[in-house]
Amino acid sequence: MTPAARVQAAIEVLDLAIAAAGSRGAPADRIVAEWFRTRRFAGSKDRRAVRDLLFRAIRACGPLPPSGRAAMLRLAQEDSTIAALFDGSRHAPEPIHAGEPVAEGGCAPAWLERRLAASDIVGEELTALLGRAALDLRINTLRGLEPVLPEPGEPTQARLGLRFPAGTQVEQWDAWLCGAVEVQDTASQLACEVLGAQPGETVIDLCAGAGGKTLALAAAMDNRGRLIACDVDRARLSRLAPRAERAGAAIIETRLLDPGRESAALDDLHGAADAVLVDAPCSGSGTWRRNPEARWRLDEAELARTRAIQQRVLELGASLVRPGGRLLYVVCSLLDEEGADPVERFLAAHPDWRAEPPALAAGRPRGQGLRLTPHYDGTDGFFVARLVSPC
Fold first, then answer.
1. Which parts of the chain sit beneath pLDDT 50?
2. Which of 76, 111, 131, 201 has the least CB density, counted as fewest CB within 10 Å?
C-alpha cells in the first residue's frame, strides 16, 4: 500500500469505528483486525501503519466525529505530511476542499470535560489521558519469582511489576505462554496489593470480569484459601478458566450472577469473607490511553446508570465482609462521582465502618481513598478506597 492508500484505508476503518461507537458496537481494535482479515494484500507494515493512523485520529478528536474523513482531517491539521497525502491519486483520499467538515479537537465531549474539571482533571492531567500507555507485566509467583524474559523490563511501583514499551509482543514470549507473567497495568496491581489478600483467607472478587485481578489475588494467597470470582457477564467470566490454568491458579471458584438478583446467589457467603474486592463498572475514563474511543461511547444517561450500579455493588460487597474484614472499592475512573463520592455516601450511611488510607508508593489522597493518574503516576487512572468492617 502507498502512504496515501494507508490514509484512505484508515478513513474507511474510522467510519466503521465511529458507527460502532455510536451504537456501542465492537471496539476499534477489533474492527481494524476484521477489516484486514478480508484484505490479504496488506502486509504487516501496512497493518501497523493503518492502525497507527486510526488511533492517532481517534485521539485527535474530542467529540464523536461526523465521519472518518472529518476525523482524519483533524489529524491532518496537526500533521502536514498527512495533509499532503489527500491528493486524489489512485487509492488515495480526495483532495481537501475549502469549508468541508473537520472533526472537533479536544480531549472529550464538552459535557465530559466539564465533569472531569469538577474532579480536578484539567491541563496536563487531562491531556495525559490520551497518551499511549506502556505495557506493564506482573510476575506470577505461582510460576516462580525469576521468569526468563527476552528483554529486561523497568521496575514499576508495584511489588512484582515490570514495564516495557508500548507494542511489545509479549504474547509471543515463552514466559507469557507458560504463565510466568501476566499483562496487568501497574494501577491494577497496586489495587490488589492494597486489598492484602493472605494465604488461607476467604476472598471474593465481586466484579471479576475476565479475572485479571483474580489471578493476582490467587498468587498473593499462594493458592491457599478460598477465592470466589463473580460476574454477571458469562462471556467475560468464561475467559478466566483458561487464564487460571495457564497461571497455575488452582483455588479459584467462579459464580455467574443474575443481574438484579446477585445477593441471592451469594447467600452462603454473607458475612463470611475476610476480604472483598469491588472493581465496580464505571465510565473507564482512566483507561482512555488504551481505549481512546471509549469517550465517544459514554453519555450522561450511561454515566447515571453506572453510578447506580456502583452504589449497589458497594452495598452488596459490604454485606459479604465478616466483622473486622476489609472491602476494597476500585474504579478505573477519574470522576469523583464514580470514585470518592460513592465511598463518602457509603460511610455516611454506615458510620460504624471506617476508611483506612492505602499505603502505596504511588497515587495521591482523594476523599477517603487514593487516586492514581497517568500524568502523575504513569499508570491508568484509578480510584482506590480500603474500608474496614466493624468488629
1. none
2. 111
